């Protein structure tokens, strides 16, 4: 081995007792290409490299101080929750704001990231605060997910956490009225009503809930009113309770029909005569159908088609409960008798749920 030995005699070196000291603005010590540079202390002596305040030691581009810091740094430690932690159970629709927390033993900042699984839909993780926030989804489920806490040196610790979502009991507010029974469903409730009631919350008394043939409501549109053997231009669409005039038929072959739009439970009907002193129906029968093709008579207690009393004046409203509740989409009013010298006029309403 060849060694080049520095010859310091041309430097302003000073020898203090056992020290050889160089004081110079900058000092370069370099070997020639292929040459080695050796600092060698005596037995029991140290080699000391001591950068100035704010300075560092660089070895082939690597900052030795940062490198040592990194080597010595410790990974984060989960603090608030254990590594396998439940962050709680939440009811659908409520606000979620829970946090995970890890600390860096070296005192640095932590970044959080979901690395596996899924947070509940509608929630997110704040990467700087570790807060999982949002609104609990409308579903009954448990969500398990992994979160990685990473410190500024890239050291990390992983934790597995879970959040349980409990679907809200939709029946808790007792939404069903009038003795209806509530059943819980996802995102909604379902009421099973006692026989006289209907509507979403059994709030309707079916025998007095009009489907809306009445001229003041017109929930049933003109297109769902039809008739057979109509007199002159007194069309079916006029045959609405409380309308200005009414529908007028010709004979016992005439009928006025209401299409309810879908099969409903029909409880009662009401009629008036045509708005003129002679055109009112004294009696009628009712027919009903689910498909508009095959019609059945409403049967009375004597086993034959029930004869409903119409009215004894053109304007009075006469309401009848059906002998039993029927399921029907189409209801036909078929005049049987009418005021002498007149024609069978009708204005009608149908009630049910
Ligand atoms: C040595 O010093 C000179 C001038 O001061 C400088 O240009 C050069 O880069 C230095 N060499 C090393 C290896 O630092
Ligand atoms: C995370 O939380 C901090 C502090 O509350 C907030 O300033 C920041 O906007 C949040 N970040 C996101 C992405 O919401």
UniProtKB/TrEMBL annotation:
EGF-like domain sequence ranges: 167-203
GO function terms (MF aspect): calcium ion binding
Disulfide bonds: 193-202
CDD domains: Cadherin_repeat, EGF_CA, FA58C
Signal peptide interval: 1-17
Keywords per UniProt: Disulfide bond, EGF-like domain, Glycoprotein, Repeat, Signal
InterPro entries xref list: Cadherin-like_sf, EGF, EGF-like_Ca-bd_dom, EGF-type_Asp/Asn_hydroxyl_site, EGF_Ca-bd_CS, FA58C, Galactose-bd-like_sf, Ig-like_fold
Protein origin, superkingdom: Eukaryota
Species of origin: Magallana gigas
Domain annotation F5/8 type C: ranges: 206-353
A Gene Ontology cellular-component term: membrane
Protein name: EGF-like repeat and discoidin I-like domain-containing protein 3
